[in-house]
Write a structure and sequence with these properties.
Structural class: alpha+beta
Number of domains: 5
Distance between the termini: 75 Å
Number of strands: 26
Strand content: 15-25%
Largest sheet: 7 strands, mixed
Number of helices: 25
Shape: elongated
Radius of gyration: 32 Å
Helix content: 40-55%
Length: 757
């Protein structure tokens, strides 16, 4: 029988973005992600502890958003809806998790950007700070009561213990519900309650107080590590001066569209990535790239959103919308870094999953086996078992890697070194070879025409025709030819049928003739090259110049020599890499003579005449000999960047290279490669010290506890103290400076790291 009822609507999925107050460390993110894994209908989950946000797609027919928010609250976090799309399902008003409360919060916070606490908020006004103060006051009151009435003191200690344990126990139960029964909160709760039950309420209160202090310090430290990345969002100005006719109008900067013209006055920040149309000025790029010295820029040059215009008035063409400018991309890349864990971090995560249950098992055996099997008294062994629960807390161990990685990525970002994740950061320091592209990487990427030779035609005609063929290309050599034509005020004719053959030639039809601007090797397949022409080409190449041949009607019509000078810091950077024990090689599509000339000047081996597929083969060979990093900036470098163990893009390179690479150098200095290697090695040294300290301290306290020398408050210090020391050691990386870091300590403070670091 066919029903006349209309078909039920298909479930709709809501895209939700939450600010999760309290989710401020890698461990917190793990808890949230484990909980989300148990929520039916939750997909495409991404989290960021830098911004304390949770993004997901939620089918509210399976799980109403109120239930999700209730789960987050049960874990001890405060979710606020920043943005979302409506869903076909509506949370029921009588839902056990208080849907009406959540909806009210959602409406009141929608579209508002939250922070963990407003700038300048003292620690004692935060939620964790209030808990520390309250439990500390109760602990002090109980201690003072001990001088008047010991019985009152005992009840004071019990009250202090229960007050501190209650939020921990709630979080522990919630974690157990969501698949994590052996959480840190569970260990501390068991230890504190156990202390009360065996008559050690005073020590239980001290345990809870020290743990609360440790959590507070961890939150403060995590905030310091996050502050540098969060400050990026404030770099771009909120308003811009839009040029309209003969005047300007102030509009919101995030409403700027590509192609519009804006004016930037002296002392103002650049509102968008763009190209200078009129004016010349010095721009302070330090807030964005970490470059300490203002750079003079003029018509045709690129500027970054957030840079400071120091003197002249500029008008700019907007090249990128606010969501795609340099600052937005940096923030996006750093957030992506959180999702790419270092191999060491993944190992610690796996280890902690077995370590914590193992601690509970050992603690239970210590508490039960001697009394039950050996006739020992219960109290001492129960006490030792409880102490082992505290000693076994994996806080310091779990924090040892992500705290160091976050600090290192923040320090690198401040100095123009963008690293897309812990995996890339760890790998960079292990590579045995760094392979460099030549043009735009080892060289400045601004080649200039040095010589023009006509063969049967005038040199100006060679330049006119070659510039026409190259007019549609963005390759640095093509720009050198078109720039030379512009300087000499040569009129460039229109072209048709333009096409490029990567690594070989560019061809087009000019004034009815099929012309090509090609490498000498490819030119030899198109037209005969006289002995004199071959000798001239060889002479140019021996001088480190790149020669290209203009060919038409199967005849060589002219020769153009182009020189691209090495970057000023290239030689010192390559020497620094050799001092670090890293081999260097240049991979270039240029001819062997030019490549060798540059290689001799810089002191590195060269493989030349390489097409993009040849670079892939060389990278594969180098990988077989050990780790290899590839440094490049162009579209033709993207495959090699992806093929290498670590791809490093020069910041001025193409979008394809930047998206393919694992790291990027915003300062466009070769020394940045050596800095990346050094930062990686310093970070891994920091991590090894952290792990050794965390495990070593626990081993010492394990032995002293079994021998009866360690009490409960000392046991919690083994955890809280180790956590504080490990975190402080990781935060030292915020002050890291590379060999190429010439940033001045005076002048405007860089905004990519918190002050005082």
């Amino acid at each position: 029988m066919t029903s006349s009822r209309p078909a039920a609507p298909q479930p709709e999925t809501a895209h939700l973005t939450y600010f999760v107050d309290g989710m401020d460390c890698a461990s917190c993110v793990q808890k949230v992600e484990r909980m989300i894994a148990t929520v039916p209908g939750a997909t495409e989950v991404t989290t960021s502890f830098n911004r304390q946000t949770l993004n997901l797609q939620l089918d509210e027919h399976q799980t109403p958003r109120a239930v999700l928010e209730g789960n987050l609250k049960a874990l001890g976090y405060a979710p606020s809806l920043l943005g979302g799309t409506p869903s076909a399902a509506t949370p029921q008003a009588h839902d056990d998790h208080g849907a009406h409360d959540h909806d009210e919060a959602s409406h009141s916070h929608a579209g508002h950007v939250h922070e963990a606490a407003p700038a300048g908020t003292p620690w004692y006004r935060t939620g964790q700070g209030k808990l520390v103060v309250t439990s500390g006051v109760l602990l002090l009151a109980a201690w003072l009561f001990g001088f008047v009435e010991p019985a009152l003191a005992t009840w004071g200690y019990i009250a202090a213990t229960l007050l501190g344990v209650w939020p921990l126990a709630k979080k522990a139960v919630a974690s157990a519900r969501f698949g994590d029964p052996f959480s840190i909160n569970m260990l501390v709760s068991l230890a504190a309650i156990g202390a009360v039950l065996i008559g050690q309420a005073a020590e239980g209160a001290v345990v809870v107080f020290f743990f609360a202090v440790g959590e507070l310090l961890e939150g403060i430290a995590a905030g310091r590590a996050r502050a540098g990345i969060q400050a990026l969002a404030a770099l771009a100005p909120k308003t811009a001066l839009l040029v309209e006719g003969s005047g300007t109008r102030e509009i919101p900067a995030d409403s700027l569209a590509v192609g519009q013209t804006v004016q930037v006055n002296p002392g103002a920040r650049v509102p968008a990535d763009g190209t200078i149309l009129t004016g010349t000025s010095s721009l302070d790029d330090s807030p964005v790239t970490g470059e300490s010295v203002p750079v003079v820029k003029t018509v045709g040059e690129t500027v970054y959103a957030g840079s400071i215009n120091t003197d002249g008035v500029l008008t700019l063409r907007v090249d990128k919308a606010a969501a795609d400018n340099t600052i937005a991309r940096i923030i996006h890349l750093v957030e992506e870094a959180e999702g790419s864990k270092a191999p060491t971090a993944r190992f610690i995560d796996r280890f902690s999953r077995y370590y914590t249950p193992g601690v509970v098992l050992v603690s239970a055996l210590v508490a039960l086996v001697p009394p039950l099997l050996l006739g020992q008294p219960w109290h001492p062994w129960l006490y030792k078992g409880i102490a082992l629960l505290l000693i076994g807390c994996p806080c310091a161990l779990v924090l040892s890697v992500p705290a160091a990685i976050t600090s290192a990525i923040s320090a690198g970002t401040r100095r123009g070194l963008l690293i897309k994740g812990g995996a890339a950061l760890e790998t960079i320091g292990t590579v045995r070879t760094v392979a460099f592209d030549k043009t735009g990487t080892l060289t400045a990427g601004r080649p200039r025409v040095t010589d023009i030779v006509g063969i049967g035609i005038d040199r100006s005609e060679v330049l006119r025709l070659a510039a026409a063929v190259e007019s549609g290309s963005s390759h640095p050599l093509a720009r050198a030819i078109t720039d030379a034509a512009s300087r000499e005020k040569v009129t460039v004719p229109p072209v048709t049928d333009a096409q490029a053959i990567p690594g070989k030639a560019v061809s087009a039809t000019v004034e009815g003739r099929a012309l090509s601007v090609t490498s000498p090797r490819h030119a030899a397949t198109l037209a005969p090259l006289t002995l004199d022409l071959q000798l001239q080409i060889a002479a140019f190449e021996e001088q480190g110049r790149t020669a290209v041949v203009l060919v038409g009607d199967s005849v060589a019509m002219g020769l153009i020599a182009i020189r691209d000078e090495p970057r000023a810091d290239a030689k010192a950077a390559l020497a620094q890499l050799r001092d670090l024990g890293v081999n260097t090689v240049m991979l270039t599509g240029d001819n062997a003579r030019t490549g060798q000339a540059i290689g001799r000047d810089l002191g590195l081996t060269v493989q030349a005449d390489l097409l993009p597929e040849d670079k892939l083969a060389v990278i594969a060979q180098l990988r077989a000999q050990g780790g290899v990093a590839m440094v490049g900036d162009g579209i033709n470098d993207a495959p090699a960047l992806a093929q290498s163990d670590v791809g490093i893009a020069m910041g001025g390179g193409t979008d394809v290279a930047l998206e393919t690479a694992d790291a990027a150098l915003l300062r466009e200095r070769v020394m940045g490669v050596a800095d990346l290697v050094q930062l990686s090695r310093d970070t891994m040294t920091n991590i090894k010290w952290n792990i050794a300290f965390a495990l070593g301290l626990k081993l010492i306290f394990l032995i002293t506890t079994l021998l009866g020398y360690t009490n409960l408050w000392m046991a919690i210090l083994a955890d809280t103290g180790a956590t504080a020391i490990v975190t402080a050691n990781a935060l030292r990386l915020l002050r890291w400076k590379g060999k190429g870091d010439t940033q001045a300590t005076t002048g405007p403070a860089p905004t990519l790291a918190p002050s005082g670091t």
